[in-house]
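Q: I have 87 residues here and want to know how they pack in 3D. Can you give me a structure?
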Amino acid sequence: MWKRIPMLVPAGSRYCHRCSTLKELASFPKRASDPEGRDSTCRTCSNAAAKQRREIKARLMEAVRNGMHRPARHLPLPEGVEMETYQ
């Protein structure tokens, strides 16, 4: 199993686990559940991951609209499409 190697980080900065860089603390969004009060990924990486998720969801919904994919039950159906069509 992979084990994280501890590293010395200067005060006022934090290590981003996604892009593997050391950045100042202001570059990390707040997170109440973290012991230090900041997220483990920087804003740049968090925004890039969110953009990727939005693009994947948009492609999935486009496939649903075109009848190429059965939608998950919790996602809304496109207008004019009945659930019986997918069953």
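Q: Anything worth noting?
A: The radius of gyration is 20 Å. The CA atoms of residues 7 and 15 lie 9 Å apart.
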